[in-house]
């Protein structure tokens, strides 16, 4: 069950089940044959067993799958001395924000966890075997950088900006992933070989693998979206030190062509780090620039498999929650809110066990369905995975679709579709 519990306070999600939906029957295509397999995201990626506040650094790193942290524990710790004992302004702002929402997080999480435990979820049980986390090195961003040397499709040739992953004969076609939107328009997920690797591509999905400077094919795709979800690569010192991915300043994020991608009253959802400056940037700078009106602020609460916060709620180091800012796109010529849309409630919680893989967020498709409508067209920006029925863009858009993150097993006759398969979540 993907949505384990829900109430007026929010939802408890089984993030792994959300990924699995739509993969119970996948066509696996090779040069010589076609077979069918069942794909399940590896369970050990969602087995966060202990709160990081109650274990040592090394144990926390093991639970989080953070190999970088593990490497650091083998070196003498370096402590940076603070010049003053007083909090700086950023820390003061963060503390004020935390105190403002603390009771919402605490009381709402307790209520939702009670509902989840009543159906046997988040009771500490685990179905994962003790296996190491997949350590697939993602070189997609580097490939996007090299692909800048390739010519872009001319805007006058818009119809050529789209290509099919599977040809009319059901075989994987030769595709240009970097300058054309690639579609799997079939009703079945497929496992295909791309760029020397094997990837699981959901049903009825489309994607563009490119960096920020090569988004034009997505604009030329010609679709307007009713839901846009984005997880921007926010600038911060930790990212710069780790060099895990490239960040973007707000001046560049402003250049996202939201007005060319969003339909009227499109719901725009943005993941925000816990830095108050990033939250202010979204509310006061980016959303107004894009013509998006803030309608709600939600919180993703991260818990262990036994329902404990992954970090103490009042931890000065890291908080066990992240923020989502929701808004409606309103074209300048239309300032009215369509009555056909369900109002978005404020201060909702999304409670789930987080992935041990860096930057993997839970799918929001199930809980956003009612605010967009069953026929809504959905887009994810800065995506690192694909979702059935969605369009996705990013320079690592296929990262978590690599088969190294899945367990593949033989499937029965494809005509016997499993009841838990729902290839179009929105």
TrEMBL record:
One GO term describing the cellular component: nucleus
Keywords: Methyltransferase, Transferase
One BP term from GO: methylation
Alphabetized GO MF terms: nucleic acid binding; RNA methyltransferase activity; site-specific DNA-methyltransferase (adenine-specific) activity
Xref: PROSITE patterns: MT_A70 (PS51143), N6_MTASE (PS00092)
InterPro entries, sorted: DNA_methylase_N6_adenine_CS, MT-A70-like
Pfam family, one: MT-A70
Domain of life assignment: Eukaryota
Similarity-based family: Belongs to the MT-A70-like family.
Database matches in PANTHER family: N(6)-ADENINE-SPECIFIC METHYLTRANSFERASE METTL4 (PTHR12829:SF4), N6-ADENOSINE-METHYLTRANSFERASE (PTHR12829)
Protein name according to UniProt: Methyltransferase 4
Lineage: Eukaryota, Metazoa, Chordata, Craniata, Vertebrata
